UniProtKB/TrEMBL annotation, chains A, B, C, D, E, F:
Keywords: Cytoplasm, Lyase. InterPro entries: ClpP/crotonase-like_dom_sf, Enoyl-CoA_hyd/isom_CS, Enoyl-CoA_hydra/iso. Belongs to the enoyl-CoA hydratase/isomerase family. GO terms for biological process: fatty acid beta-oxidation. It catalyses: (S)-methylmalonyl-CoA + H(+) = propanoyl-CoA + CO2; (2S)-ethylmalonyl-CoA + H(+) = butanoyl-CoA + CO2; (2R)-ethylmalonyl-CoA + H(+) = butanoyl-CoA + CO2. The keyword Magnesium does not apply. It comes from Alkalibacillus haloalkaliphilus. The lineage of its organism: Bacteria, Bacillati, Bacillota, Bacilli, Bacillales. This is Ethylmalonyl-CoA decarboxylase.
């Protein structure tokens, strides 16, 4: 059975590596993938050995966003809400994992792929990648709670600005606004990489403490409420005329 | 009748342009102007067509602050409180408008002009302008709630530092600390300007959602309480010996 | 009697200068020093003349952290909690002083020295110094509440990242992330120094207002709770095997 | 033109009396009534003479709830949301009026009538009336935000209990749980009535202060969010099979 | 295998009945019981059929508190913290179950038994039972977070008062202070009992909504922090001389 | 030297008894008394032996409120603010004492005397006394923050109602609304009194924990802000025409 998400537990480094594994689809997030990811994250919530979680994609892309075969333009509002809620639930669980999480963004990310990255505590980005909260271009908003999470990762003013502009940015730009903590050149992930090494050296207890300190610094209950509002707003826009037109145009452009 | 504030509703772009129109006074904010601005903002609160509001000034200045003919040094504490409250009320209404707001800072801003700009969601600044929260130089503080708003727009540490230093800064410096989201060269405002175009392209529903998300991210009740405290503190300093001396010195310097 | 902390009240400038005075120990914080500092801060809480407090060290260092003679590796958890609590108490009192406070970081700071600096409102740093939250290298965390305070001084994302990395940084890096508001070259502190002058010029009432505005912007009750959690977590890690090993290695390295 | 809501401004006592005036419909709340009530409350928000607002009904009932001709069982979810939102908006405005408000409950109240009463600061009840949050019996919940408001008026535990039980209670029971502040026998409202007299005697400034103190004691932003969630939940249940059946049964029972 | 906790899923009424089943020990909470209860609550969190959960005991007692064989006086602070944390975790999960929960208190409750009852949304009590937060008599405090929960169930003033007094109360007294919502005479639980019937009649969606409204009304993040503090305080008092003496006296009294 | 406030430290029971000692003035609170009380409370904040503080008055009255010789009708707004602030400061310190505090209300209390009682954690009242927040009758409001504290002691709805009504109530009524925890007949205070005995029996550590739990349950920062607003509102009403008339009438009535 081929899996759409791979989990590798590196016991030597007490690190879990979660890999989105649909490289031919640029790791687009299908309903099947969501289910598998959900189970893996549940397992990590119960895990008492792992001190670090890394989320990455099968190269060359990190994640192209929601798979349009599942999240397509014709579903109704109720159904859209139902589907968006599923992945919101996963992002919430990633956000509240008891150990630090790193989004190792090995390449391109768009839309929902950026939301997934925003659910991680830290983000390291490939210097050759391009990255964009492009939902705005399709007449919708972020829909899994990732826009809300972006507000926690960078200054709210910057988050609001990016979501409206919906533009694609470079690795260096991501570091400048604080979305990425580090930039790497396109080699393999190694645990002695200068960006990863400090995490590997810290103890289990240290890393759990720092994660707890990070979570306590946030108002998690309000965060959840705001993520809920985002899902509702997005499912509402899903059935708008503007969204349907934007999707049609998107396919027309891609056909040529 | 010539108006001190102009409202232009561009129905094509569903954009309202509010222009401070006392160019000979560098758009200083008089009591009469406050009243007109108040009515225009009330109208925009009820507006269900407009998706974007821009606030700007009749060139060359954006806004020189409070008009010293109305906000002069001899008024008592009770009276100062009463006058400051009027404009605080307008800044509060601008802050809570249901659509995104852009401060299109076409030129110089000082004191209260910066407070007005801080009430907008975004700020784009003319590269040749100079900008300063200069209230501190006159032995008072911001007095319309704009210092409190500054705390929401840039990192609180930066806000506190600027208010104490009370220095004048360039357009580039404003972008560096995140107060301005973009810098433009001194041409006319056009809706296909790269800074404005994304807003025009987004739908009414998208923009209202993002504004709502931005507001929900803030603790508005506490924001209002902090703005109230600012008005009280400023009206208290208004009648201090230090303020009276600073105003006298200011006029002496300007006479020469 | 020679004092480990000096208090100089400059009545001309209404400024209090608090100097850590154990230059031969790089101003390491002993229990005796804590007691003296505590009394001085209590005095400043009652002070109704002073408009500015500066905290600095007897050159060349600012503060090397906790004195290992008092905060050594062999004490038990209960005792560690008791000792850490003492200095946490002082940092809390510094944080809530009614006037602005400046950490004038005349040179090197490590570990607890950085926590002390984080309790100040502003930090100006010597361009030749090096600065690091290095607690993480010793298998513990910050333990006086200073990690929690760091979350308030720079973006939480940056704070979390620095605490995990536990690396040493330059003056310029501190300014880039907003931890330092200014960098000075290694001359004497003078009140007409461009970094200090604005503070000296402002009135007593202005400075107290701005400090109050700064404090009201924070959730102080939650801040205290988070500082308490930090003390507990650190005293828990204090007795871990990893900490004892790290301390042993530290001494081995330093012996050579 | 006969009005569905009457406004009487008693200038002697600086009191506004708002009367629901559809006695033949037991003052059921129709869309037309909502519109008139909305305008009256807007007027009272701007009023700077009135120190007290009383809301009552044309006898014998206080208010039977939403008028089933407008809020009927066949409307869809989107439409239900739209209609419920209208009255939620009015309840929010009543809640935040700047002067004390008294619900003078001259007789029976059910469902939405109780929600309206909950938006008032105080409630005085006719000893012969019966009162019930009976929405639960119809397989829905409160839908105008009034359930949320009930949580603020009595202990949350009691509110939760009443909403689930959906039972009808007597005047004395209302006083026991603190929902009513006083009980009157079924005579005319007079300003020298012992329950009203103290309000009439207090000054404008006193009453506005106490109202402000009452509002500041609540977290209004969170209150609004919770009211929004209530509207959404109710409009969702509106289209449930259980609701349609309950409505059908209700009419069947009433026919007999 | 005989179970210490029984789970009965009544599919007709969509109700789960959880029964503490150590009648010979007055249903005292042992470590083994905690483990079984934990698993059952986990199952109910995932359950999407059940609309109501009832927690009760095998008669005649509801629950005598922690089993002194496991929670005995000689364990150290670290160990006490570890054991208390286990049951706190279960109480937290009960508190946040997605459906309403009823503590059907069939008889006597003391100490930890009261904490368990406090984790339920509602409490109905046997008129012949006696009930007490008696922890205070043993020189400790509540230790599973139940004291914190009591603050949410009755007025904080009453909670504080009861915890200090540590007295035993009757069913009627419990109803007076609002801890119990209803009193029943000592017959069997039946679903057509007037206290239970309304819950059974409501729909799944209604009950989930009301539970969600109840939870949203609380600050769950702060609730968790306060529960954590309680566990720490209690484990600290566990090793005090006063506690050891009180336990010794308790056994002496019971021997006679 | 005869003192206006007596402090008796009962070392046997580890209890401090603070007695207002101006029986001929019904223990009215003068500026001199405030100063003495302030010093005593400061001492109790540092005290590490005392486990309980009781505040009472020299019989027959508990406290008649502010002494009109100091808090008289002719002082200006600024001065009123200054004087009110002094006692607010003391009430705040009492509220945040680290050990439980009991207001042993040996007799009549009015106005500011009720505010003082509200700053205590618990209140026991003499069955023959009468008690009233009567400030409203003098066209002002509570002015030391005691109205705000009342909101924490009883249900906010009840607090709002009492402050507007400004009526005098009996001991039994106080117990009914939860303002008093117990009623005693007019005998001497004894430590084996059933109301006091439980406190005396509990350990130092228990009582400090329960007090801490009580304080953590409140939002102290917001409490302080609300108390500040109360002082400002009251000092504003102090100079109103209505207040001056009410004071004049008060003296006229008392002359006869």
């Amino acid at each position: 059975m081929s899996d759409d998400v791979l989990l590798y537990l590196d016991q030597n480094n007490q690190t879990a590596i979660v890999t989105l594994n649909r490289p031919e689809k640029r790791n687009a997030i299908s309903l099947k993938l969501i289910e598998q990811l959900d189970q893996i994250i549940d397992q990590l919530h119960r895990d008492q050995q792992t001190k670090l979680v890394m989320i990455t994609g099968s190269s060359p892309a990190f994640c192209a966003g929601g798979d349009l075969n599942d999240f397509h333009g014709d579903i109704g509002q109720e159904e859209a809400h139902h589907l968006l809620k599923k992945m919101q639930n996963v992002l919430w669980k990633i956000t509240t994992l008891p150990m630090p999480t790193i989004g190792w963004m090995n390449g391109l990310a768009r839309g929902g792929g950026m939301e997934l990255a925003s659910a991680c505590d830290f983000r390291f980005v490939n210097e050759t990648g391009t990255y964009g909260f492009t939902q705005g271009q399709l007449a919708i908003s972020t829909g899994w709670g990732g826009g809300t999470l972006l507000y926690e990762r960078i200054h709210p003013q910057e988050a609001y600005y990016w979501l409206v502009n919906a533009d694609v940015r470079s690795a260096v730009q991501l570091k400048e606004i604080g979305f990425a903590q580090g930039v790497f050149s396109s080699e393999q992930l190694e645990f002695n990489h200068p960006l990863i090494e400090p995490y590997i050296k810290r103890s289990y207890e240290q890393l759990r403490h720092w994660k707890s300190q990070w979570l306590t610094n946030q108002d998690l209950q309000m965060l959840k409420i705001r993520m809920d509002k985002e899902v509702e707003a997005c499912s509402h826009m899903w059935v708008s005329r503007e969204h349907k037109e934007a999707v049609a145009n998107f396919f027309k452009r891609n056909e040529k």
